[in-house]
């Protein structure tokens, strides 16, 4: 799906929660840290399922940047630190291939999801 829609970090009780600023394609949202996507609040496929593998064939952290002339897929690392600017609050976000790491500021520790410092 090449539409640019809202991405959400959490999906709770069939509701989209914690929207990310801007608009993303479904694969850029769901193959990274998104839990739901789109105006219809579609839950992202669960990692490990065939639906997730179809959307994210290179695995988590990569999205299709297909060649518009040939139509062939080209998968590129998603820079979660740029795409999701709210990551690593009270710390520094460092992009890695297929993921990201948070390094917390002095006096803060990483939360259970390893996405923010509290």
Automatic annotation (TrEMBL):
<dbReference type="InterPro" id="IPR052080">
    <property type="entry name" value="vWF_C/EGF_Fibrillin"/>
</dbReference>
<keyword id="KW-1015">Disulfide bond</keyword>
<keyword id="KW-0732">Signal</keyword>
<keyword id="KW-0677">Repeat</keyword>
<keyword id="KW-0245">EGF-like domain</keyword>
<dbReference type="InterPro" id="IPR049883">
    <property type="entry name" value="NOTCH1_EGF-like"/>
</dbReference>
<dbReference type="InterPro" id="IPR018097">
    <property type="entry name" value="EGF_Ca-bd_CS"/>
</dbReference>
<feature type="domain" description="TB">
    <location>
        <begin position="5"/>
        <end position="56"/>
    </location>
</feature>
<dbReference type="InterPro" id="IPR000742">
    <property type="entry name" value="EGF"/>
</dbReference>
<keyword id="KW-0964">Secreted</keyword>
<protein>
    <submittedName>
        <fullName>FBN2 protein</fullName>
    </submittedName>
</protein>
<dbReference type="InterPro" id="IPR017878">
    <property type="entry name" value="TB_dom"/>
</dbReference>
<dbReference type="InterPro" id="IPR036773">
    <property type="entry name" value="TB_dom_sf"/>
</dbReference>
<dbReference type="GO" id="GO:0005509">
    <property type="term" value="F:calcium ion binding"/>
</dbReference>
<dbReference type="GO" id="GO:0005576">
    <property type="term" value="C:extracellular region"/>
</dbReference>
<dbReference type="InterPro" id="IPR000152">
    <property type="entry name" value="EGF-type_Asp/Asn_hydroxyl_site"/>
</dbReference>
<feature type="domain" description="EGF-like">
    <location>
        <begin position="77"/>
        <end position="114"/>
    </location>
</feature>
<keyword id="KW-0325">Glycoprotein</keyword>
<dbReference type="Pfam" id="PF07645">
    <property type="entry name" value="EGF_CA"/>
</dbReference>
<dbReference type="InterPro" id="IPR001881">
    <property type="entry name" value="EGF-like_Ca-bd_dom"/>
</dbReference>
<dbReference type="Pfam" id="PF00683">
    <property type="entry name" value="TB"/>
</dbReference>
């Amino acid at each position: 799906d090449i539409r640019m829609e809202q991405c959400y970090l959490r999906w709770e009780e069939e509701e989209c929660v914690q929207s990310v600023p801007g608009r993303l394609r479904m694969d850029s949202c769901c193959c990274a840290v998104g839990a739901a996507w789109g105006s219809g609040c579609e839950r992202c496929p669960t990692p490990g399922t065939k639906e997730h593998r179809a959307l994210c064939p290179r695995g988590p952290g990569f999205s299709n940047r297909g060649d518009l002339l040939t139509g062939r897929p080209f998968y590129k690392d998603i820079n979660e630190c740029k795409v999701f600017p709210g990551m690593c609050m009270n710390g520094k976000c460092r992009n890695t291939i297929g993921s990201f790491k948070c390094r917390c500021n002095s006096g803060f520790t990483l939360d259970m999801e390893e996405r923010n410092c509290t």
